[in-house]
Write a structure and sequence with these properties.
heterodimer, A: 434 residues, mainly alpha, two-stranded antiparallel sheet, 16 helices, 66% helix, disordered C terminus, B: 348 residues, ABC transporter involved in vitamin B12 uptake, BtuC, 73% helix, globular, disordered N terminus, transmembrane helix (chain B), transmembrane transporter activity (chain B), transmembrane (chain B), membrane (chain B)
C-alpha cells in the first residue's frame, strides 16, 4: 500500500500483487489469530465480569477472591462454565462426581438452541464474507435479513391456501419461500451495491442507514397491513406447521432443524466453489484485493460490486427465511441481531466460506450459552454482545499477536508474517474509501 | 457558509461540487416556499408544516439533536484529516451517553463534588469514557496497524454491547431510569457553535492544523520535517473522542436518561455524523450546516408525529435515514485525505 504506483507493467506482477495478501497471511496464521482473539476476548470479558461484579450491588457475594477476601457479585468462573457447558447441554458434570454427566445426549434442548443459532449464523456469516471478499463491508446483512424474512413469511402465507396441506406442499412452500427471501434480501442488498458502484456512496454508511429503513418499513407494513388478528405483538400470522423445517431428533422447542443446518453446510460448499473455482468468483476476489488490477485485467468492477452485494444480500435474505421457517414460524418485529453477529463470524473465519462453519458454531455456542447465563446467573446476557465486538477488534490487529509472538520468542505461525508486516497489514484493508 | 479568506476554504471551494451548493440552495428555497405557503394558507398541510418548521420547539429539539451529530462530525474531521478514518464515532457517542448518565446518577443530581455540580461531572465522565475508547482505537490502528474500518466497526459493536451490559449491571435493565433533569437546548447550541468555531480555528489557523492535514495528505513530508506522524494521528483520534464525548453526553443529559434497547438512543447518529462531515467537505462550518439539516429533519418528524397525521410514526422516522442515503449518493466521492486509511511506517 505504501507503494504509490503498483504494478502497471505486466501480468505476473499483477498476479503477485493479487495473491500476496493471501500468501502472506497463511491459513494457519489466520487460525492462530482467530483462536488467540477468542481467548483474549474471553479474558477481557472475565475482567469485565469481575469488575462489574465488584461494583454491582447484591446481598451475598457469589464469589470471594482468595487471599484478598474481596467479595464479588458475579462469579466469572461460573459464568464461563455455564456458558460453554450450558451451550452444549451440560455434558460435563460440575460439582458431581465424575467428569461426564451420565444422562447427557447430544439431542438436548440447550445444544439444539446452540445449533439453531449456528444455522442462522452460517447464512449471515456467509453473507458478510462474500461481500468482504469483494472488498465491500456489508454491515447491512441485518436489514437484508429483515426484508428477506418478511418476503418469506408473506410469500408462504399467500401461497399456503392455494396448495393442499401436506408434506409435498410443505416442501414447495419452503423452497419458494426461501427463494422469495433470497430475492427480497438480494434486491435490498443491490441498492447499496448500485449506490457504491455508480454514485460512489460508501457502503458502510448506506448499509447501516438501510438497516434502519428496513426495520422501520417492515414494521409499518406488518403493523398496518399484515398483522395477525388479535396478536399482542407486531407479527404476521404463523406459517402452517408443515411449511416449517421439521425438528428431527431434537426436541421441537429447540427451534432447530437438522435439515436446515445441512442446507447451510451445502451453501458453504457451494459458495466456496463459487468464490474459488468460478470465473465470476475470481472477478469478485480480484476486485476485492486490488480493484485497479481487476479493472486492468478486464473485470467490470462496477458490475462486480453490484453482483457481490446482491449475492451477499440474498444470503442474508435466506438467513431471514430460515429464521422464519425454522425458528420463529412467523415474521415478528423483534428480530435478533443476527446480521451483526454475522460480521464477527465472517471476520473470525478470515472471510473464508469454509471457515464460516467452525466460526458460526463457536459463535453459536456463545449465543446458546448466553441463554444459559440468563437462566442460571445474575450476569447480564449482553456480555456476549461485548464479546462480539472484542473478537472483531482483536482479529483486526494481527500485528499485536505477531508482536507477542516475537516477544515470547515463539516462531511458527504466530511469527510467520513478521518478515513483511507492513505489506500484510495494509494489503488486507482493501479499498477503504469513506 | 464558509470563510472565503481561509486558504483551506479556497482550496476546497475549488473541489466543491456544484450539487452541494444546489442542495443548500434547494433547502433554503424549500424552507422559503414553505414559509410563504404557510402564511398564505394557514389552514392547509403547508400551514401545519410551516408551523412545525418555524416553531421554537422544533428549533429547540433541532439544537438538542444536532449536538451529537455535529460534535461527532467535527471529531471525525480531526481523525480523518490526520489519516485515521474513525467509523467508530457511533460507539463513542453510545459509551459517553451511558457513562454521563451513570456518573450523574452516582453523584446525584443537584449534589456537587468539590464544588463541581453533578451535571458537569457527568459531562466530564462521558468525555473521559469516549476518549478512553478512542485511545484504544488509536492504539489498535496506529500501534498494531489494524484495518481502520474493521477496528472502527469493533468500537461501535463493543459500545453497543457494553453500554446495555453496564446499564443492566447498575440499573437492572438496558434503559436507565430517568434522572429527572435535562440540559437545556441553549447549552447544546452553545457547545455546538463553540466547538465548530474552535475546530475551524484549530484546523485552519494553527500549526497543529497544518500538521494534522499533512499527516493525512503526505505523512512522509511531515516525517521529513521532524514531526511524528504517530503523535499527530493520536492527537486527531483523541480529539474525535473528546468531541464525541461532549456530543454523546449532551444527547443523553438533554433528556436525563440512557436508552439502551435496540440500537440504543444514539440510533445511527454517529454514522449520520460521518455523512455530515463528508457533506460539509471536511469543513467544520459545512459540517455544522449538514448536521443541523439532518437534526432538523429528525426534529420535524418528532413534531409531525405529535400532530397526528395518518402517516405511521415509524415511517416518518425513516425520513432522516433516507435523506442521509440520498445526500451520500449525491456527494459521492469526496476529497478524502490521500493517506487516510493507510498505516504509516516511520522511516528510521
Amino acid at each position: 500500500m505504501s507503494d504509490p504506483n503498483p504494478d502497471a507493467d505486466g501480468d505476473p506482477s499483477v498476479f503477485a500483487r493479487v495473491v500476496a495478501p493471501f500468501v502472506d497471511r497463511s491459513v494457519a496464521e489466520r487460525l492462530v489469530i482467530s483462536v488467540a482473539a477468542i481467548f483474549l476476548s474471553i479474558l477481557v470479558g472475565f475482567a469485565l465480569v469481575l469488575v462489574s461484579g465488584r461494583i454491582a450491588e447484591c446481598s451475598t457475594a457469589a464469589w470471594t477472591m482468595p487471599i484478598t477476601g474481596l467479595g464479588f457479585c458475579y462469579n466469572p468462573f461460573e459464568v464461563y462454565v455455564v456458558l460453554f457447558n450450558g451451550a452444549l447441554g451440560y455434558p460435563f458434570a460440575v460439582g458431581d462426581p465424575g467428569l461426564f454427566n451420565p444422562g447427557w445426549t447430544p439431542f438436548n434442548l440447550s445444544f439444539g438452541l446452540t445449533l439453531s443459532e449456528t444455522t442462522l449464523l452460517i447464512f449471515t456469516g456467509l453473507s458478510v464474507a462474500v461481500a468482504f471478499r469483494a472488498g465491500l463491508f456489508n454491515i447491512g446483512t441485518q436489514g437484508q435479513l429483515v426484508v428477506g424474512a418478511l418476503a418469506t413469511a408473506l410469500t408462504v402465507l399467500a401461497l399456503a391456501p392455494l396448495l393442499p396441506a401436506g408434506p409435498v406442499a410443505g416442501l414447495v412452500l419452503i423452497v419458494v419461500g426461501t427463494a422469495a427471501g433470497a430475492v427480497g434480501g438480494g434486491l435490498w442488498g443491490a441498492i447499496p451495491g448500485a449506490l457504491k458502484a455508480y454514485a460512489d456512496a460508501n457502503e458502510v454508511i448506506t448499509t447501516i442507514m438501510l438497516n434502519f429503513v428496513a426495520a422501520n418499513v417492515a414494521y409499518v407494513l406488518v403493523l398496518e397491513v399484515f398483522r395477525a388478528e388479535g396478536s399482542s405483538v407486531v407479527a404476521t400470522r404463523y406459517v402452517p406447521e408443515y411449511a416449517q423445517f421439521p425438528s428431527v431428533l431434537f426436541p421441537a422447542s429447540t427451534d432447530f432443524a437438522l435439515i436446515a443446518l445441512l442446507v447451510g453446510v451445502a451453501f458453504i460448499g457451494a459458495l466456496y466453489y463459487f468464490v474459488e473455482h468460478t470465473s465470476l468468483g475470481y472477478d469478485l476476489r480480484t476486485s476485492g484485493v486490488q480493484a485497479a488490477a481487476a479493472e486492468y485485467g478486464g473485470v467490470n468492477a462496477k458490475l462486480t460490486t453490484v453482483r457481490a452485494m446482491t449475492l451477499s444480500g440474498a444470503l442474508g435474505g435466506i438467513g431471514g427465511s430460515v429464521w422464519v421457517l425454522m425458528s420463529e414460524g412467523r415474521w415478528m418485529a423483534s428480530i435478533p441481531d443476527l446480521g451483526f453477529d454475522g460480521i464477527t463470524v465472517s471476520i473470525l473465519a478470515g472471510n473464508n466460506p469454509i471457515g464460516v462453519l467452525p466460526a458460526a458454531f463457536l459463535f453459536g455456542i456463545l449465543k446458546g450459552g448466553a441463554l444459559e447465563i440468563g437462566f442460571r446467573t445474575d450476569v447480564p446476557t449482553e456480555l456476549v454482545a461485548v464479546l462480539r465486538g472484542l473478537i472483531i477488534l482483536f482479529v483486526a490487529m494481527p500485528e499485536f499477536f505477531r508482536m507477542i509472538g516475537r516477544y515470547a520468542g515463539v516462531g511458527g505461525a504466530g511469527g510467520a508474517g513478521s518478515t513483511k508486516p507492513d505489506e500484510s497489514a495494509g494489503g488486507d484493508g482493501g479499498e477503504a474509501d469513506a | 457558509m464558509r470563510n472565503p479568506l481561509s486558504p483551506a476554504s479556497l482550496l476546497e471551494s475549488a473541489s466543491e461540487s456544484s450539487y452541494v451548493r444546489s442542495l443548500v440552495v434547494g433547502t433554503v428555497g424549500v424552507l422559503a416556499a414553505l414559509g410563504v405557503l404557510g402564511l398564505a394558507f394557514p389552514e392547509s398541510v403547508f400551514g401545519d408544516l410551516a408551523g412545525i418548521v418555524f416553531s421554537t420547539s422544533t428549533g429547540a429539539s433541532t439544537a438538542r439533536l444536532a449536538a451529537p451529530i455535529v460534535l461527532a462530525g467535527l471529531g471525525g474531521i480531526f481523525a480523518e484529516k490526520s489519516g485515521v478514518i474513525n467509523i467508530g464515532l457511533e460507539g463513542l457517542l453510545i459509551i459517553s451517553a451511558f457513562v454521563s448518565v451513570y456518573a450523574a446518577s452516582v453523584v446525584g443530581v443537584g449534589n456537587a463534588v468539590l464544588g463541581v455540580p453533578a451535571l458537569v461531572i457527568a459531562f466530564l465522565a462521558g468525555i473521559a469514557a469516549s476518549t478512553f475508547l478512542a485511545a484504544v482505537f488509536a492504539v489498535v490502528c496506529i500501534e498494531f496497524k489494524a484495518d481502520q474500518i474493521i477496528a472502527g466497526l469493533a468500537v461501535w459493536l463493543i459500545a453497543l454491547g457494553l453500554a446495555p451490559f453496564m446499564s443492566t449491571v447498575f440499573f437492572g435493565g438496558v434503559n436507565t431510569p430517568n434522572l429527572g433533569v435535562s440540559v437545556g437546548w441553549k447549552y447544546s447550541a452553545t457547545m455546538v457553535v463553540l466547538a465548530t468555531l474552535g475546530s475551524w480555528w484549530l484546523l485552519n489557523r494553527t500549526a497543529f492544523g497544518k500538521h494534522l492535514r499533512a499527516a493525512g495528505e503526505n505523512p512522509k513530508a511531515l516525517d521529513t520535517v521532524g514531526v511524528s506522524v504517530s503523535k499527530v494521528r493520536y492527537a486527531g483520534v483523541l480529539l474525535s473522542g473528546v468531541l464525541s464525548g461532549v456530543g454523546g453526553s449532551a444527547l443523553a443529559l438533554s433528556i436525563g436518561q440512557f436508552v439502551g434497547s435496540g440500537e440504543t438512543m444514539v440510533q445511527g447518529k454517529g454514522f449520520i455524523a460521518i455523512v455530515a462531515y463528508l457533506f460539509g467537505n471536511y469543513n467544520p462550518l459545512g459540517t455544522l450546516g449538514a448536521g443541523v439539516l439532518f437534526a432538523g429533519l429528525d426534529a420535524m418528524q418528532i413534531r409531525l408525529q405529535q400532530l397526528g397525521y395518518a402517516i405511521p410514526d415509524t415511517l416518518v422516522q425513516t425520513i432522516p435515514y433516507v435523506v442521509v442515503i440520498v445526500v451520500l449518493a449525491l456527494v459521492g466521492r469526496t476529497q478524502i485525505p490521500e493517506a487516510a486509511g493507510e498505516h504509516y511506517e516511520t522511516e528510521e
